Amino acid sequence: MSLTFSILIACLLLVLSLIDWRTFLLPDWGTFSLMGVGFLLNFFHIYPYGWQESVLGLLCGYGLIWLANFIYRYIKGQDGMGMGDAKLLAGLGACYGISLLPIILLGACLIGLAGGILWLQIKGQSLRSPFPFGPYLALSGVLIGNYSLYF
Asked: Which of 31, 41, 63, 131 has its CA 20 to 30 A from that of 82?
């Protein structure tokens, strides 16, 4: 049963990633759906993390990105990340709990470093240009989250 939900979450993350690639936006309908599904999967014990860890993952996932953006905005005077990324990490936290958030975020940063540089090179832009971070969060979440569930 949890495999079916894992596939559905992966499909939702794929759709969100494609939208983010094209528009640099993560729609609320997708990120809020991920949060709700993640919480329900843990509340009904379909996923093993429990509702408390799901809620903490949701809150900390959003809070980590919000705090990083707040500090960046204070230093640079502009936003460094969109809050869609914060909502996406909150959704991943709701799915996979607070304990996996640091690993998911580290994985997204490492994948995003390589992928972002490649993205900017393909687009012919400088390293100061923005690139979508949501696809890297999604990929890291799917890989690490599913690895923790099934291996």
From this structure: 41
Residue type, position 19, single letter: I
Gap between the Cα atoms of 60 and 53, Å rounded = 10
Q: Coil, strand or helix: which one is 7?
A: helix
CA–CA separation, 138 vs 44, rounded Å? 23
What pLDDT shows up at residue 151? 86
Quick one: tokens of 40? 């329900």
Of 108, 112, 102, whose CA–CA distance to 143 is shortest?
108
H helices within 77-100, ranges in order?
83-96
- Over residues 75-94, the pLDDT tens digits come to 999 998 889 999 999 999 99
Q: Parse the chain into domains and list their residue ranges.
A: 2-150
pTM over 0.70: yes
Is residue 9 pLDDT above 80, yes or no? yes
Whether 17 contacts 139, CB under 8 Å: yes
Question: CA 103 to CA 141: how far, in whole Å?
Answer: 9
Whole-number Å distance between alpha carbons of 53 and 95: 9
- Judge whether 47 and 83 are in contact, CB under 8 Å: no
